[in-house]
Amino acid sequence: MALLEVRDLTMKFGSLLANSDVSFDVEKGTIVGLIGPNGAGKTTLFNCVAGLYTPTAGKVFFKGEDVTDLPAYKMARRGVARTFQVVRPLKEMTVFENILVGAYMRTGDSAKAKEIAERCLELCFLGEHRCRLAGGLTIGNKKRLEVARALATEPELLLLDEAVAGLTSTEVREMVEVIVRLREEGITILMVEHIMEAIMPIADKIVVLASGKKIAEGAPADIVKDPVVITAYFGEKFSKRINEHKADAPAENSDVHAEREQGTAHKEGI
Ligand SMILES: Nc1ncnc2c1ncn2[C@@H]1O[C@H](COP(=O)(O)OP(=O)(O)OP(=O)(O)O)[C@@H](O)[C@H]1O
């Protein structure tokens, strides 16, 4: 049994079909990337899984239990945490205090909460910033703080919504290192990502959405060669480049920056 099972999920906003009959599994201990063009329905799917939206049709199972109708706070208690595309730290609080807020969602015991927060601080490479006010951090540190806060709720499944968007190539590498560490800690990760150099080297599986539908699912090496995905999302040039890319880590700079500036890696952009 997979940790997360999405079955025939459909989400409508009025007459707009944001997700249409989407099904896939996320196995425990894996990193799954959710990719696709702007407006493909990735964030909507995240919101359905996290309990922010109730899908119009279809089911979501977490650890074999039907959680389709559970609100976000109940999903958080069951072990599903998420980060948002636009980070919103508690600016007037320190980095450590921000993480503590997350830890207190899991426990009322302050010694235990501090212990959890210390661990998350270290896992997200934020130790040297612990006493700084969150509002004054660089975007790279703010994004890792967002992950640390979610992590402090001790999730089994972490949903990352564009965790590396807007980051420099060095910051992308730091975030990728954090994500790989989390998988080593046994945390399962489902991440929406446009920056292929970040997701392709670390994902165990990629799910591709376009116009609300799943158009492909498979190993990154197969996805980059899939003609349907190339047409709908990558474009030939991008696909050729990523196939040639020998990275075991994100690209040094220019490629990642190019995508960051364009905001996407879709077909006309590369
Ligand atoms: N709350 C909402 N009300 C109405 N329409 C919405 C709502 N949220 C999303 N949509 C629409 O649903 C479709 C899918 O949007 P969604 O944000 O899920 O796509 P996405 O793949 O995450 O895009 P991006 O990569 O740009 O973040 C879009 O047409 C969007 O305008």
TrEMBL record:
The Gene Ontology CC terms held by the record are: plasma membrane
Keyword terms of this UniProt record: ATP-binding, Nucleotide-binding, Transport
Q: Tell me yes or no: is Transport among this UniProt entry's keywords.
A: yes
Key word Membrane present in the record? no
Q: Which GO terms describe its molecular function?
A: ATP binding; ATP hydrolysis activity
Q: Which SMART domains match?
A: AAA
Please identify the protein, giving its name as recorded.
Answer: ABC transporter ATP-binding protein
Source organism per entry reads Cloacibacillus porcorum
